[in-house]
Design a protein that fits this description.
Helices cover 45% and strands 17% of the residues. The chain has 446 residues and is an alpha+beta fold. Strand 10 (182-186) and strand 11 (193-197) form a beta hairpin. It is extended, with a radius of gyration of 32 Å. The protein has helices spanning 4-9, 24-27, 33-46, 48-59, 74-87, 90-104, 203-210, 214-219, 222-229, 253-256, 268-288, 312-328, 349-352, 355-368, 374-377, 380-386, 390-399, 401-422, 435-438, 440-445; strands spanning 65-68, 106-112, 115-120, 127-129, 137-139, 145-148, 155-157, 159-164, 173-177, 182-186, 193-197, 234-235, 241-245, 292-297, 340-345, 428-431.
Length: 446
């Protein structure tokens, strides 16, 4: 992600001809994928129009989940869909994952299978859930639960046992991993990826484990506990983690090494200008929004300066006393032995804020990401009226086809994990195309 190669390839730039690559926006261009995530967080957390427009576009595809498979009849399909809805709201999960995918170019998810961790006595066989044993054990740095059995005199290491919850209580949860703590080893030919989480840097998880916090010891899979105690990275099995990576051009593959690139990077210069304009607007509002009012002795031409006979401190005290009386009783009469001049300085923020320029660059950034203007300019009512032609919907769906395909792959992966737990057969899942709902002909048929 460097412009050095581009600059070297362009010849003829010298001191007399300024290079178009010598710009501020190029100097702050992210050099690593971690810096890219920092920019993604800045735009997502501090620019509401940007994040809301992406969320609106993502949720455009949240229609209904369709189930398909070999020899699955209508009733079986309906039962599968009902079961999926009871276990978790898959559409909401898809929407949030879609936000991550568009904002950071990457989404890492695993399926968390709820389990119960118990401790058992080596002498009498007494066992109880870990959450009921917190006053009877200490957790050592080598991952051993030691203590005294509450029913016998045994003193030593307990036996740890992890068991999945029964099917009727099984409600898997989707775990979204922060991309800034993930590591990828990528083969450019087979496109195989080995993905790990850098637990020493992911302190929100690893510190709770190392401190022996009961919550973290109860709910963290043991393999992750062991890696955190050893201060190591944790490598996921290939079928246990799903990585959605935003597609990039072939010339970027050697540098990205399996990572996706968020779509705003295609117009990074505009993203920088938007942040600079926001800072500029903030400065204007702080300095020029509220007018600064000044009262001074009147100095009429040809008249003697009254300050020759009045002490300035007495003048200030008299004026401030008059203002205090006015705040207490605005209808009161106020008198001074000399005239005043009233001046207002500042307050011209409305004329200084570059509203049109800011809107131009915001729309330019969103347009470069393929987000239709209706998603960030119009109301829902206006959107329904202006986006009417079917061709508009179909073109938007085709532009974002890679996005819908990734969500469909994830839905199939997640539902098959649930199917393994529930002893279902292999099935495919997909979102129903939006144009099916918006096509006037289909609507009339319905």
């Amino acid at each position: 992600m460097s412009y050095t190669g581009i600059q070297d390839a362009v010849i003829g730039w010298d001191r007399e001809v300024t290079s178009p690559f010598n710009k501020l926006t190029r100097r702050v261009y992210p050099r690593t994928i971690r810096e890219t995530f920092a920019w993604g967080e800045e735009l997502w957390m501090h620019h509401g129009m940007y994040s809301q427009s992406i969320s609106t576009a993502v949720r455009y595809f949240m229609t209904e989940i369709d189930i398909d498979g070999d020899d699955i009849d209508f009733q079986s399909r309906k039962n599968y869909i009902d079961q999926v809805r009871k276990v978790f709201d898959i559409l909401e999960e898809l929407a949030i994952i879609g936000d991550d995918y568009m904002a950071f170019g990457n989404s890492f998810t695993t399926s968390y299978r709820p389990f119960q961790r118990t401790l058992a006595c080596r002498k009498c066989g007494f066992r109880a859930p870990l959450k009921q044993m917190h006053s009877f054990y200490t957790f050592s740095s080598d991952g051993v639960f030691k203590g005294q059995c509450p029913t016998c005199s045994y003193l030593g290491a307990f036996i740890r046992e992890d068991t999945l919850l029964p099917k009727e209580k099984m409600k898997p949860k989707v775990t979204r991993w922060p991309p800034q703590y993930m590591m990828i080893k990528y083969h450019p030919l087979s496109q195989r990826k080995i993905i790990a989480v850098d637990l020493p840097k992911y302190t929100a998880l690893s510190e709770g484990i190392r401190k022996g916090d009961t919550l973290f010891l109860e709910d963290t899979p043991w393999e992750i506990v062991q890696a955190a105690l050893k201060n190591q990275q944790f490598e996921f099995a290939e079928d246990e983690i799903f990585h959605m990576a935003y597609p990039v051009a072939a010339c970027c593959l050697p540098n990205l090494k399996g990572w996706g690139l968020p779509p705003f990077m295609a117009d990074f210069e505009t993203a920088v200008l938007v942040t600079m304009l926001d800072k500029y607007v903030e400065t204007i509002l702080v300095e020029y929004l509220m007018p600064f009012r000044v009262l001074s002795p009147s100095a009429s031409p040809g008249q003697q300066d009254i300050m020759m006979n009045v002490n300035m401190s007495d003048f200030s005290a008299s004026v401030m006393d008059m203002l205090r009386r006015h705040r207490r009783n605005p209808t009161d009469w106020n008198m001074l032995p000399y005239p005043l001049d009233y001046q207002v300085m500042g307050g011209e923020a409305g004329n200084l804020v570059p509203v049109e320029i800011l809107e131009h660059f915001e729309m330019r950034l969103l347009h470069s990401m393929g987000i239709p203007p209706e998603f960030y300019k119009s109301s829902i009512k206006e959107f329904g009226a202006s986006a009417g032609p079917v061709i508009g919907f179909k073109m938007f769906e085709r532009t974002w086809q890679h996005f819908a395909n990734e969500l469909n792959k994830w839905a199939t992966w997640q539902i098959n994990i649930l199917g393994d737990l529930m002893s279902w057969e292999n099935i495919d899942a997909s979102l129903k195309p939006v144009s099916m709902y918006e096509d006037p002909e289909i609507r009339s048929v319905k």
